[in-house]
Amino acid sequence: MTTTLLIGAPVDSGKRTPGCLMGPDAFRTAGLAHALESLGRPTRDLGNVTPAALRDVTTPNPALHALPETIAWTEALMQAAHAAMAQGFPIFLGGDHSLSLGTVAGVAAHAAEQNRPQFVLWLDAHADFHTPLTTTSGNLHGTPMAYVTGRDGFDVFPPLPSVVPQENVCYLGLRSVDPAENAALSQTSIAAHDMRAIDEHGIAAPLRAFLDKVEAANGFLHVSLDVDFLDPAIAPAVGTTVPGGATFREAHLVMEILHDYGLVSSLDLVELNPFLDDRGRTASLMVDLTASLMGRRVFDRPTRSFSA
User: Fold this and answer.
1) What residue ranges define each of the domains in the chain, with the CATH number in brackets?
2) Are 78 and 154 in contact (CB under 8 A)?
3) Active site residue 278
4) Which listed residue (228, 231, 250, 277) is catalytic?
């Protein structure tokens, strides 16, 4: 069986609310390795990635926050993700969502070397489709999908080894997309499903349609799971809470369907801020969701017989 590789990415530069650097250790403390091993999956913790050296970079957008630091993380995580794909199934323990600038670029580079397409499932309240030129907040955790799909404006970032085609991207759970991002997304072939669409049609149908596409193309599938995909009532430990997120059962259903298809080749767990958590319940839920992706069923337990 493929070895699962736990790779810590304590990235805290992509936004201004501190705390995500504690995420990797919170996932470890919540028992992620034990949960995976209990499912019969060999698991190896590779420790935390160290960012590359800082570079002197300039940008026309004065709002950008911690640009050199985020570029340094992108360089290091791109290399780490590329190397990990040849060794097993990597799970990147975040860290804020700017870590995906590097992880998605790295796994896509591996896919290109294997002459197979890379697909991305983005489970998030936000589209993260800004560029360093269009963001008004300056928070680079809002830029990964723009970067990996080849939007302009990333000249100071590492060149992409392989661009992820827009038609190979699917968003599930959107509910906080600003007008600039919405306008940019409307010009793409990205499949974007917001929470209203999920309320009206359910979460399984669009997910299965996307997975059928991945399967038909024999693609690699990277899943990026943001804590704020979930409703804050069940997952409070995130600095970007948006009401109306996925329920406990919707989230587990997504993971169970992903397991049924058996296509996922890499995973991000991002935006966990333990400083904002309630006795570790968000970290524990994220661990449980990862276990569902790896084969655990929520109601996998012996049924008691009440026969006389």
Assistant:
1) 4-293 (3.40.800.10)
2) no
3) no
4) 228
Q: How far is CA 10 from CA 20, 25, 49, 94, 233, in A?
A: 7, 9, 8, 6, 25
Mark out the alpha helices in 30-140 (DSSP H runs): 32-38, 67-85, 100-113
3-state secondary structure of 154: coil
288 is catalytic: no
Number of CB atoms found within 10 A of residue 206's CB: 18
Instruction: Tell me the pairing of strands 169-174 and 4-9.
Output: unpaired
Reply yes or no on whether 228 is catalytic.
yes
**Residue 141 known to be catalytic:** yes
The string of pLDDT tens digits covering residues 120-176 is 999 999 999 999 999 999 999 999 999 999 999 999 999 999 999 999 999 999 999
Helix pair angle (248-261, 281-293), 10° resolution: 30
